[in-house]
C-alpha cells in the first residue's frame, strides 16, 4: 500500500551566524505516513522535530531531498501549495496563540473556508466541524470569543478549524502540551475518533513517549536531525533498542526502569560529531558495553546509515539492526 505522505532523504539547513558553519536542523530523514495511520515523532527540544514537520507542510523548503503526497512530489508553486495545505492541516501547541482574540469561534473556524473560497454552505460546514471536534451544539459556540472558553475547548476550536477543510492528514505539534492532565485524554480520544470515523492520518510531534504510547500506531524517535529508531509503538516502547529511546522511556513512571540521566546537552547542529551522533551522551558507551561488544571505536568514528522509514530499525552500533 502506497504511503500518503513521504519524506525521502530530507535535509534542511540554516545559515550559520557570521559566516560560520550551517546548522543541519534536519540531516537526512526518510519517513512515511500511511492513510489513516497515526505516527508519533518523538524527541527532546531542539532535535529538529518541528523543522521536519514544517518541511512536510511545505512551510520550509528542503535544502535537499523531497516530500511527496499521494504519490506525487510536492510542488512549491503558490497555487499548488494552497491546494496541498487544504489536504494537510496544522494543529499548533498553544490554542491561545493560535486563535485571534478578536475573532469569534465562528470566524476562527470559517477562516480556512474563506481563504480557499469555499462555494458551499459556510454555516453548515462550520457547524459540522465544531460538532466533529466535540463542541455541541455547535451554534452555542458561534459567537463566543477565545477568552470565554476553557483550554480544552480552545484546542477543540483549533482542531475544528483544521477539520473544516476536510483534510486527509493532520500535523499536530505538541497538541496537548499546554492542557491540564484531565483534558489531555479527551483531546487524544478525539484524535483517535477522528481517525476511526474519517480515516484521517496524523503526525503527532511530541517530546512525550507516554503520549505516543496512548495514540500512535508507529513511532519515529528523532535525535540531532535524524530518526534514530522506528517501529510500531509496541515494538519501540516495549523493547527499545537505541540508548536514546531507552533514556526517554526510563523517565515515564509506568516504565518501571531506573531513570537514565543523560550527560550534557545535545550537540550544536552546526557541529555534529563524527560517528554516532549520540555517542557523547550514550550510557551504553559510558558503561563499557560498547567496548565489550567491540564497537566502541565505531561508535566514535563511523557514521550510521539513514533509517529507511520502514519496519523495525535502530541506528545504533551495539543494538541496531544488523
TrEMBL record:
Q: Which domain of life is it from?
A: Bacteria
Domain ABC transporter residues, every copy: 5-249
The terms under GO molecular function for this entry are: ATP binding; ATP hydrolysis activity
Q: Which UniProt keywords apply?
A: ATP-binding, Nucleotide-binding, Transport
Q: Which Pfam families match?
A: ABC_tran, oligo_HPY
Q: Which GO terms describe its biological process?
A: peptide transport; transmembrane transport
Q: Which InterPro entries match?
A: AAA+_ATPase (IPR003593), ABC_transp_ATP-bind (IPR050319), ABC_transporter-like_ATP-bd (IPR003439), ABC_transporter-like_CS (IPR017871), Oligopep_ABC_C (IPR013563), P-loop_NTPase (IPR027417)
User: Which family does the record assign?
Assistant: Belongs to the ABC transporter superfamily.
Q: What name appears for this protein in its UniProt entry? A: Peptide ABC transporter ATP-binding protein
UniProt organism field: Streptomyces lavendofoliae
Q: Output the lineage of the source organism.
A: Bacteria, Bacillati, Actinomycetota, Actinomycetes, Kitasatosporales
Amino acid at each position: 500500500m502506497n504511503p500518503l505522505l513521504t519524506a525521502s532523504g530530507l535535509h534542511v539547513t540554516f545559515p550559520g551566524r557570521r559566516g560560520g558553519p550551517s546548522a543541519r536542523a534536519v540531516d537526512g530523514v526518510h519517513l512515511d505516513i500511511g492513510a489513516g495511520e497515526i505516527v508519533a515523532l518523538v524527541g527532546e527540544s531542539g532535535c529538529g522535530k518541528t523543522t521536519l514537520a514544517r518541511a512536510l507542510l511545505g512551510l520550509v523548503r528542503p535544502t535537499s531531498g523531497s516530500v511527496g503526497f499521494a504519490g506525487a512530489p510536492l510542488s512549491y508553486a503558490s497555487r499548488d501549495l494552497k491546494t496541498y495545505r487544504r489536504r494537510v492541516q496544522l494543529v499548533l501547541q498553544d490554542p491561545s496563540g493560535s486563535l485571534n482574540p478578536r475573532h469569534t469561534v465562528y470566524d476562527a473556524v470559517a477562516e480556512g473556508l474563506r481563504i480557499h473560497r469555499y462555494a458551499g454552505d459556510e454555516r453548515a460546514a462550520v457547524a459540522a466541524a465544531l460538532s466533529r471536534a466535540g463542541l455541541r451544539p455547535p451554534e452555542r459556540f458561534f459567537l463566543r470569543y477565545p477568552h470565554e472558553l476553557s483550554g480544552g475547548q480552545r484546542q477543540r476550536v483549533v482542531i475544528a478549524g483544521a477539520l473544516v477543510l476536510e483534510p486527509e492528514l493532520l500535523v499536530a505539534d505538541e497538541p496537548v502540551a499546554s492542557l491540564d492532565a484531565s483534558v489531555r485524554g479527551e483531546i487524544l480520544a478525539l484524535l483517535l475518533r477522528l481517525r476511526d470515523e474519517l480515516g484521517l492520518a496524523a503526525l503527532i510531534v511530541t517530546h512525550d513517549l507516554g503520549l505516543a504510547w496512548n495514540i500512535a500506531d508507529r513511532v519515529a524517535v528523532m535525535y540531532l536531525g535524524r530518526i534514530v529508531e522506528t517501529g510500531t509503538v509496541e515494538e519501540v516502547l516495549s523493547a527499545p533498542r537505541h540508548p536514546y529511546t531507552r533514556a526517554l522511556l526510563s523517565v515515564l513512571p509506568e516504565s518501571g526502569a531506573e531513570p537514565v540521566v543523560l550527560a550534557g546537552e545535545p550537540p550544536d547542529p552546526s557541529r555534529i560529531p563524527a560517528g554516532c551522533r549520540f555517542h557523547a551522551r550514550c550510557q551504553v558507551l559510558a558503561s563499557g558495553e560498547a567496548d565489550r561488544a567491540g564497537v566502541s571505536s565505531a561508535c566514535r568514528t563511523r557514521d550510521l546509515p539513514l533509517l529507511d522509514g520502514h519496519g523495525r530499525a535502530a541506528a545504533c552500533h551495539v543494538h541496531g539492526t544488523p
